[in-house]
Amino acid sequence: MYELNICHLYPDLLNLYGDRGNIIALKRRSEWRGIKITISNVTLGDSFIPENYDIIFLGGGQDYEQTIIQDDLLKQKGSEIKNAIMNDKIFLCICGGYQLLGKYYKTWEGKEIEFLGILDLWTIGGQKRMIGNMAFECDFLKSDTFDGKVIGFENHSGRTYLGVDVKPLGRVLRGNGNNGEDDCEGALYKNVHCSYSHGSLLPKNPAFTDHLLSLALKQKYKDFVSLQPLDDVIESCAHDSMLKRIL
Amino acid sequence: MNLRLSITIAVSKIIIKGLRLMRRGGTTLPGKIALKLYPGFIKEITHNFKIIMVTGTNGKTTTSRIISQILNENDIEFISNKSGANLVSGIATTFLDSIDIKGNSSCSHALLEIDEAAFKSLSNFVEPDILVVTNFFRDQLDRYGELYTTLNGVKAGIAKHSKTKLVLNADDSLCASIGKETDKEVVYYGVNNNACDSLEENINNDASFCLYCQTRYEYQSHIYGHLGEFSCPACGYRRPQSTVNCVKVLELNPEYSNIHFSINSTGEDKSKMWDARVNLPGLYNVYNALAAAACGSLLNLPVENTIKAMGKFECGFGRMETINAGSKKIRLILVKNPTGFNQVLNYLLTEDKQMQLAFLLNDNLADGTDISWIWDVDFEKLEKIQHNVGTVYASGIRAEDMAVRLKYAGVYTNKICIIKDYKELISTALENTPEGQNLYILPTYTAMTELRKFLKNKFGLKEFWK
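Above: the input entities. Below: the structure tokens describing the complete assembly.
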């Protein structure tokens, strides 16, 4: 029997409006295939040992909560997170969690807040919030049965720009994405998947969930070939109806 | 009285009449127009009233309804915006509707429910004598921004006033912080340690960390959400002592709750203890009743009348509204945010009969355009009562997303049924509801108003502004 260990980093602080849905999706889609799943909550003051985990999730937070983790993240867990990323560990990072991996956040007033600096990207605060349903296209999700179109909901004022080492996660079809200027949404660096689509990104995009699970299983088990398909009628209905509405 | 005010009142009154004739509520538009004609008019027409305001994330409407029953029991005449039109324009309309052309009213009191994000701007015009704040939870972040922005907005509004007395929830670290930061008179209410067993395993994270020093709170007791006896081990900020207390929850059943409560004491003085029935089910309504009782005590009204009011107030407009369909009942419960929704699910756990469930999820502006919050609701609780639940219907604009959530919560897919058309939904669901049992419908705001229109035609509900 296959087993996967998922780490939810700062679940009590970086858990903005539905982020938990991503954990629920990973858990259920594993269980439905008989894959044993263990979820570990790692927060302030806890030690973070990346070798113990197969997938690591970092969600978004309100400004207040993001300031609380600042020290713990930069001084305690930062170097381990960097090692894990360099060693191809699989990450999903949403909204605030995505920004934190970058170099800095520059507020609208010009104040610069130092972030982890693991990924070559940076964020600049904007005055206008970018809010709404969105859709983007991910090449790495394209297959014979899926066109790679992902739906989400964005709600951010930060505008993120990618440096040379980092690829966008997808191309914006509808909405703003990283900055509303260059049609790029999210970031992809090694096995780190970053997106502004907060809340329930994975539940309504089962192909994305399965992609992360497959990556993790391939990394862990030499004999793993592919995930068995599931009945996704309801998920597809939700996905397709939103895509139809906004495209 | 100046001419501009007279004209504004006259025009508004004609619009209100017109809209009512056309069978439209007319609960916000007249106020909106009046505010355009003469922005300062509210200040002029409100200063003769003794004003009670209710704000906060959850429980505004129900708390207002209990307070209105308390006023009734004491023969106090008052005006109120009971249709739930709780933005500045709705409140303006309420006053316009109640005054005569000269700006006079026969009522001495005004009871107003005000949206927590709109309170700050209303406070520029209207100064309440009593402000009741129910709680602060994460709600519609796409519309309100951050929770702390909402809280700070309410604080900024309060700071503009001098005479306001406050009624605050002692168990909510966010709400209670208002009292810590003001020198105004405060009456706190709360649920005592050991008064009940919490149905929730986890303290949710709307406010896990001290507002003042960012240290994780410790909890002596936990009621639901982040409500409970909190204390900060670092800076000492802690639950303030409350004077209106639920000492013991004696009974929680699907119809009502029985509580033992104290007023104007910390709960040890037996001579100041009372038994009361709260005429709506769910622990969250115990809080609403306590808030209303605290308001009654600030008005110096006799406790006996408050207890009478708690036992017989009615809410309606989607707050456990009951519609009889032959021997079966439709029960309508509005859901808006994770904490409120979780409380309604906790209530459903107390239902021991077979039931049909329908969840109606819309994503219009008034619902919040972001439906991600459904992933913060513990639908997983439904697994515990799966044997009692017949079909679970998903409806509304985002019915499919609702169905996905239910599936991932562990509801068997053969029990999940998507029906978008309300007519079909009601007839199918009622057909599947056994005689003498309940069909629970849990809609978001605009789904509730649409569904009510449909139910009004079919079952003859009261117009909501009556």
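Note for the figure: The interface with chain B takes residues 11-13, 15-21, 24-25, 28, 44, 62-65, 67-68, 129, 131-133, 153, 155, 198-200, 203-204, 231, 234-235, 237-238, 241-242 of chain A (CB under 8 Å).
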